[in-house]
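USER: If only I could read backbone structure tokens as easily as an amino acid sequence. It would mean a lot if you studied the pair and described how this chain folds. Here is the record:
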Amino acid sequence: MNSSGKWTLNVASQNFSYDRFGNRKITGASGGVNNYNPTYDTTNNNNRNIGLGYDAAGNITFNPLTGGTMTYDAENRLLTATNGSDGGYTYDADWRRARRITGGQETWHIYGIGGELLAEYAAGASWSAPQKEYGYRHGQLLMVWNWSETGDRRLQWLVQDHLGSTRMVVDRSGSLGGVRRHDFAPFGEELFSGATIRSASNGYSSDSVRQKFGSKERDETGLDYFLARYYSSTQGRFTSPDEPFADQDEEDPQSWNLYSYVINNPLKYDDPLGLWRRVKSDDGRVIYVSDNKDDTFSSLAELLGTSANRIVNFFNGRDKVELGVAYDVTDLVGQLDQEIKQAKTAWVSEVITEAELASKEGISIGIGGLGRGIPSRGSLIRSIPGPSGRVSLRKFLEKRWDKATFGSIKKSIEYHVSKHGKGLSAAEYTQKAIKAFKDNTSVREVTTDLQGRTAVKVVSKEGTGLFTPKGKIIWFHPKM
């Protein structure tokens, strides 16, 4: 504020322009933020940055700005990088980064059934000695436990914005003094302390949490690990091209730029998995856009917890997904919620607690854990012999579950319990499903599952589920 009582805001700014191919330029910047303004090769129809090195597949191999070099495997996955510090990477069959070597130190990554990162271990370390552990709620990263920190800084709670970017990190004390703040430019460049109004006294200081823009890991290379590809926030685009002719639309020229991030609209869209993209709506409407060749109404049905036939009928028999088209499912979501609310509440089955279940079935129940005091979502079922040595919780569950599209009953159980269980054990979750199916006052509908088999959809006070005609659980969403 000056002597006349007027405030002058010291803010950061970036001005963007785009060519007709969707390549971004930063035409102006202030406040100490990124002003990287490259030129692009459009004459050869590849949209590559002039001055950077590329391999034949279009992956960046050399960045003269940082001196970094990168190599890739035959499936275009990053193998080695010297961009900032040396790194070497190994991937599992699901394209998840399973091993990282930096500075001569090897780290193993452990994932849950839903693909979420659960823990990091030093190579060869005991299961009880993780370096980091991660906690989630409904698939959203909620906390990080870091054993290399001390005191209250070991437990760090994450506060994220509407795009999933980590904006605040709160330690175990919960005090304002323990809060670390992060701000990002539209395309993900972090605005560090010293940039305009941001200062250490306001909480803008470093921490050990690597999940930053869009909750993606920003590693030692300075790049964000987006599973299928790596993203450069400085460049505002991916370092490798998308699969050509996979989801390009002749009516949308921007879709033909294989390097661009969410069609250059990062304040409205995010790209968590490269599948169905939910559009942020100011009026609360539920809208999904298809941007991937693998998107189907079946996968959208999984997101919404209903059948593919229900989705097709909702869209008047349209059974083919059109890339780039927005699908407004607000009314359908309202219908699904209303069905649950209208379900009758009479009970037929007696309430069976887990202890009673164990007693009646003659089994022992055990739920796996990971590390010290932080639950794992990756080991929800253990086969523990009962008194007879013949009956186990696993056998009890396998009698009541269908393997559905997961290939095995165990995977189906672990996926559904971890995704929808909200703290329930596998036995408790299964008992809720059994009660729902046995409730003769429930709302029932004969339909088909994702494999085209005859199935029964049940809506009851316990929740909504899809069952085989004989009562085996295909999927179930308990009402908590």
In short: Residues 113 and 411 are 7 Å apart (CA to CA). The chain has three domains: 13-238, 253-330, 354-478.
